Amino acid sequence: MVGELATTEYPDQYFGACGDAATRTLYVMRVPGGDFDQAVRARVKERLPASNARLVFWEAAGSRAAVDELLTRITADAAGYWKDRGIEIRRVAVCLDGAGVRVDSPQAQSARAEIVARYGRLVAEVVQVG
Length: 130
Fold this sequence. Notes:
The chain is of the alpha/beta class. The protein is 41% helix and 28% strand. The chain folds into two domains: 2-59; 64-128. The chain has helices at residues 2-9, 36-47, 64-84, 108-119; strands spanning 14-20, 25-30, 54-59, 91-95, 100-105, 123-128. The strands form two sheets. It has a three-stranded mixed β-sheet. A three-stranded mixed β-sheet has the order 4-5-6, covered by helices on one side.
C-alpha cells in the first residue's frame, strides 16, 4: 500500500516501511520534506478508513534508491580503487534503520576518514573486522 505509492511517486524520499501488528503501528522511513507524509496519511485513510492504525514517520539519511546506489558504487570500487590503496572492503551493507550503509574493513581505523570523504554522509559506519 505505502510501498507502491512511495516507489512510484516518491522514490527520492522513501526508504522503507514495516509494521507492528501487536500495536497496529506502521513505521515509514523516509527523507523528510515535500508532501510525502501527507500522501501516505491520505493513502492509509483511503485504504483503511475505519482503522485505528497508527503511523510513525522515521527520518532516513537517504532514500532506499540512493543508499542502494551507494552500496553498488562502494562494492564496485572495492576491487580496484580501494585494493590499489591497500584497503580491503570485506562487506558493504544497508543499515535497515535508514542510517545509510555500513562498510566492513580490516583497515577501518586508518581508512575511515578517506571512505567517508569519498562517499559522504550516507556512510553510517566504517567497522573494523578481523
